[in-house]
Design brief:
The protein is α/β, with parallel strands linked by helices and 685 residues long. The strands form nine sheets. Strands 2-1-3-8-7-4-5-6 form an eight-stranded parallel β-sheet, sandwiched between helices. The chain folds into two domains: 321 residues, Histone deacetylase domain (Arginase, Chain A, 3-Layer(aba) Sandwich); 264 residues, Sandwich (Immunoglobulin-like). About 5% of the residues have low confidence. The chain is 23% helix and 24% strand. One of its GO terms (molecular function) is oxidoreductase activity.
Length: 685
């Protein structure tokens, strides 16, 4: 995980900021977390900040301390004692004109409360904090990393267009959001940005203890930003944060506040509420292209100025990160530091949020049957007798090199599958495997041969350990007639049944020699000639009752170990944990997108070590070439690896499903959409 940081952020350190009277530094030294790569912030100028904040307000932030000193006022007390908000009848322009006649007037006009103080280098810290966020946004797009952490200090989510409040001066989250929306990667070759593009949809998830009133105000009428906030209520800022605030104008419906009691909210209640909020139909339908998280760690119960009294388990923050990552569905996530004042715990809580190799997986994230067009909440929610559709999992994920510091974004269409490994006949595959899960696991090939007995893959790789695998693909590997590739699998062999049900399963595609090519200079991965698109479909039944992580999944819904053991003996429990899925999704909850007239190769796999049932893959709206025959159905045994070619020539949305009726009813269905793309020549390519 990359972390962006600037030492200039520590220049703003007014002693009066913490209410318990004890001076504390802003952050722990983050370089002690060796798994994080610390990146120094770059300078992107004032322009992105001025896309959010008014110019007169930024001028105030830059020069107010100097003006205060020039008026002969005390150097350690530059803050307001009277606020312009007391005037309700006078025209705002007149108030502003009068306020600008003195530094005290400006402080009262541009700040909202006594938490906003200024020191000699406060502006340098404010500016550095914004540049940290902008650097993180640029890095996120440049590297295509799935997540990055902007360690911003001072925080920002209480600041609006022209008002500082709650320790916040520049709204870092808003500046980052506009930056992600308005600029393409080519604009950032120079630090001065020059060209705006169509705005992208951005989801802001605010998990600070306090409501982000400034962020809400900035985007309240904007339909391109969906703002979600979980916060203590009633609490600072006292006048905003109710669930009645839903946006205005074109932004109506794009603001979701979830108030929580600071005295009665527990770890379990917080996580359940966050999960429900992230599953909100309007939020899911919004289909964000990027996610920005206002990461407040002041929800921790020991926080000296905030704290949810029932948030006492550090694991809660790891689960928060997993829930947000799950909701992002493979889209990039940028974590922005907001509140958090328990200095001795701040680093640990941040690491827990960001480090989630083990993940929480929801087989039905939309909570909706897109075939019958009806809600599934009543059928799928956990209860005293069933665990529902959300489970603790372990997945294979890929990194750019052996430092395991920069992850390669996971293709969301693969779902629970690991990254696809591609090789040609005669190749050697070398893999460095690092186990970050809590149990011993491995990465073992299915039908590939180790180079020699002393290099056999390790069957048990303990937590934190590495193992180097080397697989040899025979040069005379057989291929069906008129078919340039075959598909096999890899999985963990530590506990084969438990590990595959836990999610440790991926695919290997073997090609005829000379099939793979580099699509563009500098590409990281090769692609096969003569194929425009490869689609991978795992049609399988996961038995979560025989997963390595069953106990953890039960703990998530509040089951005790005794209750779990009781349920395991109950008739029908195992059936309730059998997930009939395609790539980890049920009931058409993940669409496959295809272009009309392209050459599409489907790899259809069935692999269920504990549920021995055949499947029948059926495509509506198209036929495929399969072993020399034109078909729309391919039969699968309990373990099958099949390849078929399609040229989609029928526009529209079509069903792809298992034709075994009971499997269809249990959710083994998805949809694929065929769209005709018309190139006019005006696209600027």
């Amino acid at each position: 995980m990359q972390v962006v940081y600037s030492e200039d952020e520590l220049l703003h350190n007014p002693a009066m900021e913490l209410t318990n009277g004890e001076w504390k530094p802003y952050v722990e030294w983050i370089d002690k977390h060796s798994e994080f790569e610390v990146i120094e912030a770059r300078d992107y100028s004032l322009e992105p900040i001025l896309n959010v904040h008014k110019e007169d307000y930024i001028s105030f932030l830059k020069y107010i301390y100097q003006e205060w000193i020039e008026e002969g006022r005390p150097a350690n007390a530059c803050l307001a004692d009277t606020f312009a908000s007391i005037n309700k009848t006078i025209d705002q322009e007149i108030i502003k004109k009068t306020a600008n006649k003195s530094s005290s007037g400006k402080l009262g006009y541009y700040t909202a409360d006594l938490s906003v103080a200024f020191m000699k280098d406060t502006w340098r810290a404010i500016y550095a904090s914004a540049q940290v966020g902008l650097t993180a946004a640029h890095q996120l797009m440049k590297t295509s990393a799935p997540a990055i952490y902007a360690l911003c200090r001072p925080p920002g989510h209480h600041a609006s267009h022209s008002l500082a409040a709650g320790y916040c001066y520049v709204n870092n989250t808003a500046v980052i959001t506009r930056f992600l929306q308005d600029y393409a990667l080519e604009d950032m070759k120079d630090t001065r940005l020059i060209r705006q593009n169509g705005r992208k949809r951005v989801l802001i998830v605010d998990v600070d203890y306090h409501h982000g009133n400034g962020t809400q105000e900035i985007f309240y009428k904007d339909p391109s930003v969906f703002y979600l906030s979980l916060h203590a209520y009633p609490e600072y800022p006292y006048f905003t944060g109710s669930d009645e605030e839903r946006g205005a104008g074109l932004g109506t419906g794009y603001n979701l506040n979830v108030p929580l009691s600071p005295n009665t909210t527990t770890d379990t209640l917080y996580l359940d509420t966050l999960k429900a909020a992230l599953s909100n139909p309007n939020l899911v339908k919004f289909d964000a292209e990027a996610v920005v998280v206002s990461l407040g760690l002041d929800t921790w119960h020991e926080d000296p100025i905030a704290g949810m009294k029932g948030l006492k388990d550090p694991e809660t923050y790891k689960k928060m990160g997993a829930l947000i990552k799950l909701a992002a569905q493979g889209r990039p996530v940028l974590f922005v530091q907001e509140g958090g004042y328990t200095i001795e715990k701040l680093g640990e809580l941040a690491v827990n949020v960001l480090k989630a190799e083990e993940e929480i997986w929801d087989y039905v994230p939309l909570r909706w049957n897109n075939y019958l067009n009806q809600s599934l909440d009543d059928d799928l929610l956990p209860s005293e007798t069933r665990l529902g559709t959300v489970y603790q999992k372990a997945f294979y994920r890929q990194y750019t090199d052996e430092t395991f510091s920069v992850p390669i974004p996971h293709d969301a269409s693969l779902g629970i599958l690991g990254p696809v490994i591609r090789a040609e006949a005669g190749d050697k595959i070398r893999i460095t495997f690092l186990n970050r899960a809590r149990y011993p696991h491995s990465l073992f090939p299915h039908t590939t041969e180790p180079c020699s007995k002393h290099r056999l893959p390790g069957q048990f790789v303990s937590t934190g350990e590495r193992y180097d695998y080397e697989w040899h693909i025979p040069a005379d590997h057989p291929f069906p007639v008129n078919q340039s590739s075959v598909v096999w699998a890899y999985s963990s062999k530590s506990e084969p049944v438990l590990d595959v049900n836990a999610g440790l399963f991926g695919l290997v595609v073997i090609y005829r020699r000379g099939t793979l090519e580099w699509p563009t200079p500098g590409s990281m991965f090769q692609r096969p000639r003569g194929i425009d698109r490869e689609v991978f479909a795992l049609m399988s039944v996961v038995d979560e009752s025989r997963s390595r992580y069953l106990r953890e999944s039960a703990e998530r819904v509040g089951w005790s170990e005794e209750h779990l053991e009781k349920m395991k003996k109950r008739p029908g429990f195992r059936m309730s944990t059998e997930m009939f899925h395609i790539n980890g999704y049920m009931y058409n909850n993940k669409e496959i997108k295809l272009e009309w007239g392209t050459r599409v190769r489907w790899y259809v796999v069935s692999f269920a070590p504990s549920v021995d049932e055949p499947h029948t893959a059926h495509w509506h709206g198209a036929t495929l070439l399969y072993h020399g025959h034109r078909v729309d159905v391919v039969d699968l045994t309990a373990i099958s690896f099949e390849v078929a070619d399609m040229v989609p020539d029928n526009e529209g949305t079509w069903l792809f499903h298992c034709h075994v009726s009971s499997h269809f009813d249990m959710g083994m269905t998805t949809i694929y959409n065929v769209e005709k793309v018309i190139i006019t020549g005006d696209e600027g390519w």
